[in-house]
Amino acid sequence: MNRGRTRVRVDRDLCVGNAMCRAMAPRAFVADSSGLSVVADPDAEGPAALWEAADNCPVEAIEIHGIER
Amino acid sequence: MSTQLEATRRQMRERVVIVGASVAGVRAGQTLRREGFTGSLTVVGEEHSPPYRRPPLSKELLAGTIDREQVRLGGADDLDAEWLLGRRACALDLRRGDLLLDNGERLGFDGLVIATGAAPRRIPNPAGLDGVHVIRTAADCLALRLRLTSGRPRVVVVGAGFVGTEVASTCRSLGLEVAVVDPMPYPLAPLGPLVGRACADLHRDHGVGLHLGRHLAALEGHGRVESVRLSDDTSLDADVVVVAIGVCPTTRWLNNSGLRLDDGVVCDESLAALGQDRIVVAGDVARWPHRLFDGRFVRVEHWSNAVEQGVHAARTLLTGSAAAPAFVAVPSFWSDQFGVRLQSVGLPHLADSSAIVEGSLQERRFVALHTDRDRVVGAVAIDMPGALAATKARIMADAQIVDAVPRTVGV
Questions:
Q1: What is the pLDDT of residues B277-311, one digit of tens each?
Q2: Residue among A29, A34, A11 at smallest CA distance from B341
Q3: Residue A52 gets which letter from DSSP?
Q4: Do the Cβ atoms of B304 and A58 come within 8 Å?
Q5: By C-alpha distance, which of A59, A55, A19, A33 is closest to B344?
Q6: Given an 8 Å threshold on Cβ–Cβ distance, is B345 in contact with A55?
């Protein structure tokens, strides 16, 4: 895994706080004070969990760069 | 993992069949694999193409700002499944535990995921006039795009729901003349008058001709559509007509199956088909009692619902419905029109009133809170990103959790 070059982003214009990402990659995503998801430590989760989170975001708000599926 | 769960998994489901190769089916398949299902997985899909994302069909793909390859659905490739694409399920035999496919083949299963989605409603076109389109599949989208980009056709969109208003927005971005017809007094009627009127203003400001409070009476033309006649006898010139008047859940193949059908496949709250422990349902085709809304039976056509139900239904299949939790996700969706982002959570159509609680109509940035007898049932945000998470929490808090609806007993 490209530690350090990992780029995971939650588009806050899209996120409505469905929390699927927090269920699928709980160390990578946490809730902020308004209930939206923010990136915590993406390197704490493997690529599979990160991609699961992105695939399963109901509003497709998660972007992943530089991590192979 | 509990030993009971392990036992259930051991004894069950050597072979799971997923009928429907769009997002609900694919997410169900991914979840089965993720949660340890190692048996054989077969996905039956009516379309020939691999799974793709539908939200861009009325927007970016129609506008041509992204191409077909860019709408491929992530996660479908590594399912370790047998894909039967271009195949349709014609019948389900509960006693035999198998499906009949349109090529005459029978497909046995230990577990079944029904995710057949919905098909667009059409309007009578007795003369078979050319130029009348629906938009549900990628092929529909590309066929319509071909029409929209040949010359400068005048477009009439029938239906001012999400698909209709998004198509109108896309047509304007292509520089086309477009009119929208709908029997309701404002677009996006399920979201209530505040949002509907804001949407109407937005469309008028961008040059869309709105013909509201009227319905389509007839398509007119010779060989191809030339105009449409409305219920008040108005005639609108039309080279292309896009019919966006909603969808019907795809359940005809289940008519004689014994499954309970009522505008969708009726499920218990775990998403198991009513009275069936080894059949689960997900996406546009599922009707289930929603605990957060008095246990009333609902069917939700949002993309996000198909994602979340695919995941949940797969888990129910693995654990058995008696042990599975209720599906209680708060529905949500988004729409983009003329550069304005609209987001909704909950079920605003259940509301008896709505009020702006943040922003204003004048700014065209606001949050409208939808209530039913003072209880929050939904909210819609126009260009107010991030505003709805709190409402979701409130919907969940306000819900009076009803007693569970019977799981495996027919009603």
A1: 999 999 999 999 999 998 999 999 999 999 999 99
A2: A11
A3: H
A4: yes
A5: A59
A6: no
Q: How confident is the model at residue B6 (pLDDT cuts 50, 70, 90)?
A: low
Closest-CA residue of B relative to A35 is B389
Residues B178 and B155: beta-carbon distance below 8 Å: yes
Torsion of CA B70, B72, B75, B80, to 10 degrees: -140
Quote the ipTM score: 0.81
Considering only CB atoms, which chain B residues are within 8 Å of A20?
307-308, 311
Q: What pLDDT shows up at residue A5?
A: 55
- CA nearest A69 in B: which residue? B75
Task: Please check whether residue B193 touches A, CB under 8 A.
Answer: no
- Interchain contact A10–B (C-beta under 8 A): no
Please tell me if residue B388 touches chain A, with a CB cutoff of 8 Å: yes
B385 contacts A13? CB cut-off 8 A: yes
Q: What is the pLDDT of residues B329-372, one digit of tens each?
A: 999 989 999 999 999 999 999 999 999 999 999 999 999 999 99
Write the CA distances from B159 to B64, B232, B246, integer angstroms: 22, 16, 8
- Within a 10 A sphere around the Cβ of B267, how many other Cβ atoms? 32
pTM confidence score: 0.92
Q: Which residue of B has its CA nearest to A48?
A: B34
Facing B334 at nearest CB: one of A12, A54, A59: A59
Average pLDDT for A35-57? 91
Q: Which two tokens stand for residue A57?
A: 């975001």
Q: Which of B167, B347, B323 is nearest to B240 (CA)?
A: B167
- Residue B390: which residues within 8 A CB-CB, separation 6 or more? A34, A35
Q: Which residue of B has its CA nearest to A52?
A: B75
Q: How far is CA B110 from the centre of its chain?
A: 27
Those residues whose C-beta lies under 8 Å from the C-beta of residue B222, and which sit 6 or more positions away, are none
Whether B383 has its CB under 8 Å from any CB of chain A: the answer is no
Q: Which residues of A touch B380 (CB under 8 A)?
A: none
B341 near B347, Cβ under 8 Å? no
Cβ separation of A51 and B74 shorter than 8 Å? yes
C-beta of residue B343 within 8 angstroms of C-beta of residue B388:
yes
| Percentage helix, strand, coil for chain B under 3-state DSSP, each rounded to 5 | 30, 30, 40
By Cβ distance, the residue of B303, B307, B392 closest to A16 is B392
- What's chain B's length in residues? 411
CB A40 within 8 A of CB A32: no
Residue A16 pLDDT greater than 90, yes or no: no
Q: In chain B, what residues touch A10 (CB-CB under 8 Å)?
A: none
Residue with tokens 């959570």: B345
Euclidean distance between CA atoms B81 and B35, whole angstroms:
15
